[in-house]
Specification:
121 residues, alpha/beta, 2,3-Dihydroxybiphenyl 1,2-Dioxygenase, domain 1, 2 domains, four-stranded mixed sheet, 18% helix, 41% strand
């Protein structure tokens, strides 16, 4: 079994398309409006922005956590939590052994909380 799709609430598809295209560095792959559906491809997993979906907490792996947060802050995005270390991976259960996992949290254009994650050696 594998994860195919995650849905996130988006009340304004144009605004959400702009936000997520900037955050993800890629354009949407499909839009169906009506009924109000916008898709992005995240390495084979579909991110569905849906006017009828509940809010979800997404965690997105980014290469440069501080740089991403700084770029989003400059764009006026609300930073809910600055980058901070969560834990060290002692084994490969949840991530590469010997790496530290860092998180930051932002609000997307629709008011949803989004986690940004990086792993550091």
């Amino acid at each position: 079994m594998e994860l195919l799709q995650v849905a996130q609430r988006a009340t304004d598809l144009d605004r959400a398309a702009t936000f997520y295209a900037d955050l993800l560095g890629t354009a949407p792959t499909a839009r169906f409006d009506p009924p109000g559906l916008l898709f992005f491809d995240l390495a084979g997993v579909r991110l569905l922005l849906d006017v009828n979906a509940p809010s979800a907490l997404l965690y997105l792996l980014v290469d440069d956590l501080e740089g991403t947060v700084d770029r989003l802050r400059s764009a006026g995005v609300s930073i809910e939590s600055e980058p901070h270390m969560i834990f060290r991976h002692a084994d490969d259960t949840l991530g590469p052994a010997g790496t530290d996992e860092w998180h930051a949290f932002v609000r997307d254009s629709e008011g949803n909380l989004v986690g940004l994650v990086s792993r550091r050696s």
